[in-house]
Amino acid sequence: MDFLVALDVLLGLALVYLVFALAVTSINEFVAAALSSRARWLRKGIASLLSSDPKALAEGKADQVLDSPFLSHMGTPGLFKTFRASYVSAWPLIQGVLATVDGFRADAFARVSDIRALAEKLDDKSPIRSILIDLCARANGDLAKFQELLDAWFKTFEDQLTAWYRQKTQYVVVGLSLFVAVAMNVDTIDIARQLSADPALRKELVKQGSQVQALMDTTARDAAKEAYDKAVATRRQAEQAAGCPLQAGGEGPAEECLQSHPDLQAALDNEEALRDALDEERAAVDERIVDQIDTLTGAGLSLGWDEDEFHEWIGDLFSREGFEKLVGLLLSAFALALGAPFWFNVLKSVASVRSVGANMLEKKNDAAAK
């Protein structure tokens, strides 16, 4: 295999990895949204603050905090608690924690001494108790100073929570990458063989690789997500300012309160409209991915499983051919887990090197012809 053929094979593989890595990203976003993964990790983080046992999570107490009037309006009830608050700020979180303590009063947050008195009633070994007492002591009775210290502590807590979430998300991405590789029969070894043996297929994938910029253009989707996130934050602020009680079923603020707070109703309507716009942009990206997969198969690349092929492979898994396919699928799963941005950069780099190599070969051939 000469140098240019090897580059074309690598470019074709990079294109395939890019397309299916984008598919993994879309599936992961859908799963995360459907299960409110960020909300679940916030719940775990709150549970860790309330637990007196470092090896356990006080999830029941976390539910009490999230169900308090200070935080309940940030989410709605759902199957398996999937629609709880995903993001909170420091002050409402501490209000929610202290609202669960015996002797809590609505005016307890006007003085640092009252905050400390409530904090001392929390479980002796819970991290949040030690944190609040320390912050109260350093604030020395100054409520503004206490809030400043609280915000600084919460930023560290939120950063750690985000780190946990990203780490677990990477595990999910690995699992989804393996699922996609097996489900679509994305076998690295087989694809490399196809590209090595078929010049027409290599040429077509090189052509597609040069036009992949449009596939990676998620500007509209990212802008829609940013606009939606801002709308959610605006709605939460409006709900806090209005102080509306929830409906009997917990599905949003009471109707009477909405009528007396038009700003809140406008924020809710804007959030719904932007959520619909985000769904449309996500669907458009998903459609481009599906179209690109169809284009790959239309060019002659063999993907997917033929009838009974999967069962035959499972039956022959411990044969030489079966083990070879397993290795090819695992290589693809590992590649997809690296992410679409990685393979997009690889694709651009290989295309750049290939163009230089092609120009040098043309010059060499011209010189030989003379």
Blueprint of the fold:
Layout: H1 3-35, H2 37-50, H3 59-66, H4 90-98, H5 112-119, H6 127-139, H7 143-183, H8 188-197, H9 199-209, H10 213-216, H11 219-242, H12 255-260, H13 262-298, H14 309-315, H15 320-337, H16 340-369
Helix pairs in contact: 1-7, 1-8, 1-9, 1-13, 1-15, 1-16, 2-3, 2-7, 3-4, 5-6, 6-7, 7-15, 11-13
In round numbers, the mean pLDDT is: 84
Strand content: under 5%
Series of H and E elements:
HHHHHHHHHHHHHHHH
Radius of gyration: 28 Å
Summed up, the helix count is: 16
Low-confidence stretches: 247-251
Q: How many strands appear in the DSSP assignment?
A: 0
| N→C terminal distance | 27 Å
Shape: elongated
How does this model look, in words?
It is a single chain. The chain is mainly α. Among the domains are: 1-35 and 170-216 and 305-370, no CATH class; 36-141, no CATH class. Helices cover 74% and strands 0% of the residues. It has helices at residues 3-35, 37-50, 59-66, 90-98, 112-119, 127-139, 143-183, 188-197, 199-209, 213-216, 219-242, 255-260, 262-298, 309-315, 320-337, 340-369. Helix 1 (3-35) crosses helix 15 (320-337). 29% of the residues are buried. The model is unreliable at 247-251 (pLDDT under 50).
Quick structural gist:
The protein has 370 residues and is an all-alpha fold.
List keywords for this structure.
370 residues, mainly alpha, elongated
